[in-house]
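ingest -> validate -> predict -> emit
validate: passed (alphabet ok, no gaps, 132 aa)
predict: started
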Amino acid sequence: MKVFDWKTYIFTAVAVISFSNFMAVLFGQTIPATFMTFFRYAGETIILGAVFLFALLWLLKARPHNRPKSYSVIIFDVYGRESEISDIRTEFKTHDVAWSFMKQYKKSYPLYNFAMVSKLSKSDKPTIFRYI
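emit:
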């Protein structure tokens, strides 16, 4: 009777080594590579979608607005009532020129306040753009 059989030992050793190698490759390379590929493509899709979403929102927000064609300067006295000062210009075509004249008027007439207004086509009431 044989106590130790070399054929059984060799077969068992080869089977264990092969199975171990298979499990190491399966859990060490195959499954992680599959998940990494999926998550890499999913991450790229999410980032690209976010970029396009922010670009679309920016385009919608940055679209041209209705700019007024002319600006007026309204004069207010110390009590907050509209008043008039003779010989000053009150109608302007551009925002910058109206603002410049308002600053000059405020230096010349410190007891008055000035508002730059414009009438937009959508509303009946003038819209105040600047007030000093």
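The chain has two domains: 1-63, 71-131.
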